[in-house]
Amino acid sequence: MKGIRKVKRFTAGILAAALLVVLAACNGNNSGNSSSPSSSPSKSAAASPSSSADTSSPSAEPSSESGLDHSKELTLTVFSTTANYAGEQTGWFAKILKDKFNIKLNIIASNLDGGDAKIAAMMASGNMGDIIVWGDDKGNYPNAIKAGLLLDWTKNDLLNKYGKDLVAKYPKAIEKAKISFGGGSAVYGIGNNVASNPNGPSEGKDMTWGPDLRWDLYQKIGAPEINSVEDYLPVLKKMQEQEPTNDQGKKTYAFSLWSDWDGSYKMTLAKQFANMYGYDEIPDTAVYVKADEDKYYDFLSEDSWYMKSLKLYFDANQMGLVDPDSPTQKFDDVTGKYKDGRLLFSWFPWLGAANYNTPERTAEGKGFATVPFKGEVMYSTGFNIYGGNGVISIGSKAKDPERIMEFLNWMYTPEGAMISAGSGTAVPNGPKGLLWDINSEGKVYVTDLGWQAYADQKGTAIPDEYGGGNFSDGNNQINFSFIVPAEVNPETGEAYDHNLWETSLKRNPSKLESDWREKMGVLTEKEYFVKNNQIAVAPQGFTGKEPLQMDQSLLQKNKQIGTIIQQYSWKMVFAKNEAEYNKLKDEMLKKVKGLGYYDEIMDFSIKKAEELFEARKSVSQ
Predict the structure, then answer these.
(1) Among 470, 471, 508, 506, CA closest to 362
(2) Torsion angle of alpha carbons 395, 396, 398, 403, nearest 10°?
(3) 3-class DSSP state for residue 615?
(4) Is 463 exposed, middle or buried (0-12, 13-18, 19+ CB in 10 A)?
């Protein structure tokens, strides 16, 4: 998920070594050596961690509303720990930035070049680039602040002068930045998915999680009632028997797992069913927390949906429902299998439907759609006026911070958000006048080319005058969602997400959509869960204090526990029989508890849960 791809964590050893170098290099504001950039296989353009301003641009205005001079082209290095692309930003988004700001973006992506080691190298160099995107606000981000690698946005009144829209509309996000990481006064970055709507679920037309099934096959077997998660297995088996192979004769499966999102703690795909019961994990802790109640549980307990999910996948594998490639394949391999029609279940709308539901298939009634179970209580993320845990920063060595601040501020304006707001199932709208526009009645609508682009992203060519290339490659590649797409645009009175526009919801639905709507009695997935009171909204608050952080010793202990859990989780799913499954389960629990500090991890985890409960009191739902 672009918006959901898991970011790898820093290891304690690499971080400790990097910090020694960084702190020494930054003492006295030495420049340090620049790290060599990475590039994607398809791009040879490389990024160097420094700004350049040496090329005139006749298309850009010489000055902006802020009074800044745009006559010289400014190339910004963006170091993103969440990006899945490296090289120069191209296409329609690049064209908009060039025309409006005379700015180019050159992206370095640690995901594609070394992971944690790349982050360590960038930190050790003393220069992390002009813009830095952090996957979360733990570890790397506060350590970069301590090492002097990030610019304080309050310096020289930068934020107030060139971030006026951000200051005016999202003051709580700035307040959190100051208190949590700025000693009460400095601002080193702003959280992702910020919103000004404090109430209700913040998802768009679809929820973050499913469960989604091949709707056409589910109907063929009589659409049996599903009362629990376990009930999906016999249903999926019947669906597999209906379509044992895809059009190319390759075998179909219910579940196809991947391990490259596992990070440093759990098996990622063993947590999704917890979300469908109204719980979510506190990352890198040992607890799952209820969305709308002050309740938590140990994720290794018998009642945990982490442990129940391992058993579910084991049972599914015994039934021939789990792809045998799962232990060795990566996420990209799985998306290809969805596109090829080899999979029957999806945890996420942005995965199954986004890859299988082409216009041709949905016109025939084929495709993925949500099939809830009777006891489902969907975990829903509420609007977060304080911003999420992902952070965007400006590097301390940035040569033109005023223009960078002006650009970042624009991303939080209606104009910037209307073009690029997108995460999860919310595909960015793209250029106005080409993919969307406003009609004579003042209603915002998607053009025919827009619908084609959103459905067939890489297959839709963008005219040269709008940047050329295909729609997908032209998306904002730094992979950071500034404003939550379900936020209401004050200029249109509707959400930024085009899926929620009145004109979109009234547009002629496909055969698949019509059938789903008729049987479910609603227009959208979110409407279903809200209407049936099967949703638990998690208030997104703030304690007003610095967040609790694990010290290095506890981080290392936590990682050791996580390594054991990960390794055994995969072994348990693919155990040859139930006796071996139970043996592996007992071994895992014995090894984890035998390390002698699981109680210490649990104590910290409970404190994090209590911190979360306190934070929720700062907002009302």
Answers:
(1) 508
(2) 80
(3) helix
(4) exposed
Q: Which of 193, 273, 204 is nearest to 233 (CA)?
A: 273
Which amino acid is present at 167?
Answer: V
d(CA 186, CA 331): 38
In contact, 123 and 19? CB cutoff 8 Å: yes
Beta-strand (E) ranges in 126-275? Answer: 131-134, 190-191, 212-214
Give burial (CB, 10 Å; 0-12/13-18/19+) of 553: exposed
C-alpha span between 482 and 460 (Å, rounded): 25
Q: Is-contact 400 50, C-beta < 8 A?
A: no
One-letter amino acid identity for 573?
V
Listed in order, strand segments (DSSP E) in 364-493 are 368-370, 378-381, 391-394, 436-438, 444-446, 488-489
DSSP 312-345: HHHHHHHTT-B-TTTTT--HHHHHHHHHTT-B-E
E runs forming strands in 135-211: 190-191
Q: For 433-466, what is each residue's pLDDT tens digit?
A: 999 999 999 999 999 999 999 888 888 999 999 9
In the beta sheet, which residues pair with residue 213?
Answer: 345, 369
DSSP 506: T
Helix, strand, coil percent content, the chain, rounded in steps of 5: 40, 15, 45
Q: Which of 250, 312, 246 is nearest to 276 (CA)?
A: 312
15 close to 140: Cβ distance less than 8 angstroms: yes
What CA–CA distances, in Å, run from 580 to 97, 270, 465? Answer: 57, 19, 62
Phi and psi at 440, nearest 5°, equal: -65, -20
Q: What is the pLDDT of residues 372-416, one digit of tens each?
A: 999 999 999 889 999 988 999 999 999 899 999 999 999 999 999
Preceding omega of 211 cis (within 30 degrees of 0): yes
130: tokens are 């002009």
Which of helix, strand or coil describes residue 77?
strand
pTM given for the model:
0.75
H/E run at residue 381: strand 378-381
Alpha-carbon span 76 to 166, nearest angstrom: 21
Range name among 51-60, 161-170, 455-464, 564-573 with the lowest pLDDT average: 51-60
For 43, the token pair is 């791009």
CB atoms inside a 10 Å sphere around CB 41: 8
User: What tokens appear for 427 in the block?
Assistant: 């595909």
pLDDT one-digit tens code per residue, 303-321: 899 999 999 999 999 999 9
